[in-house]
Amino acid sequence: MVVFIARRLIISFFVLLAATFIIYVLTALSGDPLDDLRQDNSPQKATKMADRSERMQLDVPIPLRYLGWLGNIVRGNLGVNRDGQDVSVMLSKALSATLQLVLAATVLAITVGIVIGIISALRQYSGFDYTVTFAAFVCFSLPLFWVAVMLKQYMAIEFNDWLKDPTIPIGAIVALALLGGLIFGALTAGARTRRLTAFAVGFAVSGALFTILSLTRWFADPGLGPVLILAFGLVAAVGFTTLSAGLRYRGPLYSALVAALIGALCSQVLGPMLADPTWLEIIGFLLLTIAVCVGLGYAFGGLQRRQAINATVLTGVFTGAMVFLDRMLQAFSAYSATVRGRPISTIGARTPNYNGDFWQLNLDSAGHLLLPSMALILISLATYTRYSRASMLEVMNQDYVRTARAKGLPERTVVVKHAFRNGLIPITTLMAFDFAGVIGGAVVTENVFGWQGMGHLFTKGLEEVDPAPVMAFFIVTGTAIVIFNMIADILYAYLDPRIRLS
């Protein structure tokens, strides 16, 4: 393994070195960096041109300019752009904005896409499978700029107008109830009578839920409250226990249920401490939650102690996330009033000169992140859904899966421990490229939503024929591609012991 990593690092270094030279030369030859100044009619025209020429060393041959840039990189200096701004500062701001924009969207797309793809594979040729396949192909075919524009129109402008009187029309309630019924029916396996019953239950529950939300004007002043937090926590406890240990052994289930109950109680007991916390305090609460859940899993787990710890930690973190979401929702009404009733933003990363408490500041960031994240998720979700479905279908037909079933192992063990782990191998390659790619920013999304990230840094550098920011972009993205591909190779050996890297 060590020899493999060292060999890959040496090869990658020389590949990056050659690539930086090519990119630098192509950028320098792509246009005239003095073009805008040649059209300047001010008396300082000659002085400005001389200053920029000296700053960019335009009187030096391009290969020598590259060697000078390379020497600065070795010393940790990214140089300045054509206007004299420090590229290191520009890069740090752009990278921070890009990670804020695309990291959460990519993680959500991967998680949700893999889960939906696995369920679709296990329910092959069912109504759910056909629906997911159709939706994935539609989303994958949509142009990103069009999706972004539609989201700005209907999820921001129209939605902000609707929040002034957040009542749901009867026709919309019926449509949402039908959608809920179809989802319940598609997720239910078995005979037609059972699926029709699930459709009726889903229709009734969805219709009642949206009717209550409309009558109580919940969207104007939202919140979850301890009852819903506890309900979500208990459902999560059952779900995580089923995935981790199954419901045959009660120890893991009891520890997860206790974690959900403690989380719901803490949402009320810790109320004063959560009034205006800091991120350091939130991280502290998260670490404390994990420590308590590990103790609960260890105490209740018995022979299934490891699985109990996994299920309990996941339940505790999920319940904590519900508490965090509840506090965010409680601050929504006050935040909406401070931004003139337009909580969903269509441009920028934050409201200029906005001041508020912890929850209002995070709501402001979330309101600006919502639309670009949704645009990225819709497109990426389709890819991961199709890849994970195809991978799981291939793995489920392998001999070792049939052998595991023949041994009498529970279906949960067959799917989670045998099929899913091996099905992740091709998806790992896709994830490595995606995580490396998101570092480079989302050029179209950043342009549509006015986001000053890595994509903006790159396109602006190209437009201005300015190699310094372009090369800073390339150094970060190129290094990320090398590192994440190496991580993917290492994960192959972990997921499949038959793979040897040395």
Question: What would your notes on this structure say?
Answer:
The protein is mostly helical and 502 residues long. The protein has 20 helices and no strands. Helix 5 (87-122) runs antiparallel to helix 17. It is globular. The model has no long low-confidence stretch (mean pLDDT 87).
Oligomer: single chain
Measured distance between first and last alpha carbons = 5 Å
Mean pLDDT: 87
The percent of residues in helical segments reads over 70%
Q: How large is the share of residues in beta strands?
A: under 5%
Low-confidence stretches: none
Q: From the helix content, strand content and strand pairing, which structural class follows? A: mainly alpha
Specify the biggest β-sheet: none
Describe the structure in brief:
The chain has 502 residues and is mostly helical. 76% of the residues lie in helices and 0% in strands. Helix 11 (250-269) runs parallel beside helix 13 (305-330) and helix 16 packs antiparallel against helix 17 (411-439).
Lay out the secondary structure.
Blueprint: H1 2-28, H2 35-38, H3 45-56, H4 62-74, H5 87-122, H6 127-141, H7 144-162, H8 170-187, H9 192-215, H10 225-244, H11 250-269, H12 279-300, H13 305-330, H14 332-338, H15 358-396, H16 399-406, H17 411-439, H18 443-448, H19 454-463, H20 467-495
Helix pairs in contact: 1-20, 5-6, 5-15, 5-17, 5-19, 5-20, 6-8, 6-15, 7-15, 8-9, 10-11, 10-13, 11-12, 11-13, 12-13, 15-17, 16-17, 17-20, 19-20
